[in-house]
Amino acid sequence: MPTWWSGAVGYEIYVRSFADSTGDGVGDLPGIRSRLPYLVGLGVDAIWLTPFYPSPQADHGYDVADYLDVDPTFGTLADLQALIDEAHGLDLRVVIDLVPNHTSDRHPWFQDARSATDAEHRDFYVWKDPAPGGGPPNNWVSHFGGPAWTLDEASGQYYMHLFLPEQPDLNWANPAVHEAFEQVLTTWFERGVDGVRIDVAHSLVEDPDFRDNPELEQPFPEATSTQLIFDRFAHIHDLDQDGVLDIYRSWRALADAHDAVLLGEVFVLDPVRLGRYLAGDGLHAGFCFAALKVAWEADEIRDTLQAHVAASGDALAWPLSSHDDPHAATRFGGGPLGAERSLAYFTLLACLPGVPFLYQGDELGLEDGVLDTASAQDPIALRNPGVAGRDPVRTPMPWQPGPGFGFTTGDPWLPFGTNRRDEHTMLAQSGDPASPLERTRELLQVRRELAEHLRSDDITWLTDEGAVIAIERGDELVVALHVGDGDGPAEIELPAGCRLAYASAAEVYLLDDGRLLLPEDTAAIVELSTEPEGPRT
User: What is the DSSP string of 302-335?
Assistant: First the structure.
């Protein structure tokens, strides 16, 4: 049965950094509401809001103290309801972040849990006695550095936290936790939310015996990077456990009753294992994070995308960037070249089965903000000196030239970055047909016009080597991306009478005899009018 997200385009809003309506330097819900017409004009169909819940902000909202309210920093529950209602009036869907793996240590559940070993909510969290001889119960490490365990002095037990100590993990072996979250989901769906993006959806459930994770490298080298330390373990006991799928099967009935999407942040790079979450009665959709990790290299892009499409088809969401990863323009070389490559890559993603997602600023060709170490806000950077963390991708949205870049009239909570220029702003790019903004807007408009062609499950990968990645959708469209090999433009032979529906750059040409001239670092969408033999490069 068709669902609202079939054929949709998503847009991630990092709430703190999108639009400030009060001048306090922090983005808020009324600010987002004021920019809804821009998002409609851009051509997106759904917005995903990062956490806006009451929170001490130890991890900028991913430490939730109340799942059913709004932090005063961002506005009120009434502001959120007004945002949802206005978005729906503009045919925009609203997806909110749900953080079920952990809460804040300020959440009333945890405050009660640590009050006594027999407290009502004690078993809402994971508590373990010290290992024989003392110390943490096992060798699990936090994503943010240090052990995944903190000793509670009062009880003599450790509690688990795969992230900050201020983010204790919930105990999903307890049926009461399931009941609590089913009520949370039901409440938000009844308030009109169109779905939830599930934070660290591959977590939640642990090995029941809490066995040590195997170390992948011996002797264990000295390292300061949290990611290097985390990656030296095979996370076979703390992540991606089969039992987590049962949670999503129970949520599926709740979501389906409200035509709401369950969108998972499943950070599993293996396409087959990711596909487990998206098959049958599990999650409706999940992000393909492998698409965020590819280098600007044709075989790597082709092999990665092809394997994931084969495993999960249109159940995938394709993120161009995210609040946890470098902007695509930065990953692909930075500057104008990075912006050009970012748009070309997104052209291909937008024509694959599934839901493409922009992260705020991607449509402007933004690269990461250049920040000094003194401005660090991300807990990864604060806990690990010398590590940049995620702040560079979370800098405020530049709307217009001038002080505050139209984001705020005050001092922004995070600097814009010394590399921000007036030409990076939305206003400066508006109306310029060669700008990343206008070319992205044109791409999404063309995608909407070609929706019938893209709705087909039929996809053929037309090239298996070389610098050009080409696909055919439903015998009607050819989409080609030229990653580049230093040999200049590629010449692709197509049937005569085709139509160049979209080009990521003005230098792309389709000649009358059907030859497509595709420069390096560009992409094109061609509408076929005859039965193609397939392009030859």
Answer: HHHHHHHHHHHGGGEEEES-BTTB--HHHHTTSH
